[in-house]
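PROTEIN DESIGN WORKSHEET
SECTION A - STRUCTURE
LENGTH: 35
TOKENS:
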């Protein structure tokens, strides 16, 4: 999943943040790698 927000024509991607938090709270396995 990709989510972007445009703030003054700046593209922000939260992919790594969602994966990091998901691993920390146990929603996805630590060894998971996705795109």
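SECTION B - SEQUENCE
RESIDUE ASSIGNMENT:
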């Amino acid at each position: 999943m990709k989510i972007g927000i445009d703030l003054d024509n700046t593209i922000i991607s939260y992919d790594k943040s969602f994966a990091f938090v998901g691993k920390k709270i146990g929603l996805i396995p630590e060894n998971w790698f996705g795109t």
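SECTION C - NOTES
Residues 21 and 27 are 8 Å apart (CA to CA).
The beta strands are 4-7, 10-13.
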